[in-house]
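Section 5: illustrative case.
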């Protein structure tokens, strides 16, 4: 049955390489403002699913549609609709964090660089360069960069990684705020508390 209200639909997507299964057949349907937590053991296929949903990896079976159209990362409208933090985003080594965020705001025509940083509690780092960050601060910057751009679908791979409990609460707040704006969210996590805080459904991957 086709779900007309869903913004992102994965129908029995699977990935295998040379007969080895990276992702067993998985289905997912996300409506605007929905949030699903992808759960599963190390190596279960969570990142692979996110990469398929983001159009960065081709499924070897099944299909993905975004706003009713087959996923095609060459489509500008689909690239604009999808924001994903799967690998760390590329940052300009010679720009301060404030300037990186200003660039993103200018590119998308909206957003406040200061607010993008303060949302994740790192406003005091705005004059730092990317190489001047701890690993947790780098993760917060990656999140700030990802949340700074408008989108209708947000895909996050272990957004809690390297973060302390208080910073994880900021991640939860940012996801809930995105949901309130109607953004559909799928994220892989090993953090049960985060999943319970922000997701209304969990999807078991692998098995
Ligand atoms: N480029 C690759 N070539 C071959 N196999 C790969 C490749 N990338 C990942 N895999 C394998 O695909 C499977 C799924 O990996 P994936 O990274 O999607 O798991 P995951 O659920 O995100 O794991 P984790 O919780 O450890 O991050 C694993 O068995 C992994 O070893």
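Designed sequence:
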């Amino acid at each position: 049955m086709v779900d007309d209200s869903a913004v992102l639909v994965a129908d029995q997507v699977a990935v295998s390489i040379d007969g080895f299964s990276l992702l067993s057949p998985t289905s997912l349907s996300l409506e605007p403002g929905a949030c699903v937590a992808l759960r599963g053991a190390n190596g279960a296929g969570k990142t692979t699913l996110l990469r398929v949903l983001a159009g960065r990896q081709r499924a070897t079976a099944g299909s993905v549609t975004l706003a009713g159209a087959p996923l095609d990362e060459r489509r500008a409208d689909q690239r604009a609709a999808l924001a994903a933090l799967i690998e760390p985003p590329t940052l300009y080594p010679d720009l301060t964090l404030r300037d990186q965020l200003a660039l993103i705001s200018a590119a998308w025509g909206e957003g406040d660089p200061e607010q993008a940083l303060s949302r994740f509690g790192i406003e005091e780092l705005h004059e730092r360069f990317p190489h001047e960050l701890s690993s947790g601060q780098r993760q917060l910057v990656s999140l700030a960069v990802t949340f700074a751009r408008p989108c209708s679908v947000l895909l996050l791979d272990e957004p809690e990684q390297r973060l302390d409990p208080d910073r994880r609460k900021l991640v939860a707040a940012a996801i809930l705020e995105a949901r309130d704006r109607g953004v559909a969210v799928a994220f892989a996590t090993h953090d049960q508390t985060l999943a319970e805080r922000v997701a209304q459904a969990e999807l078991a991957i692998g098995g």
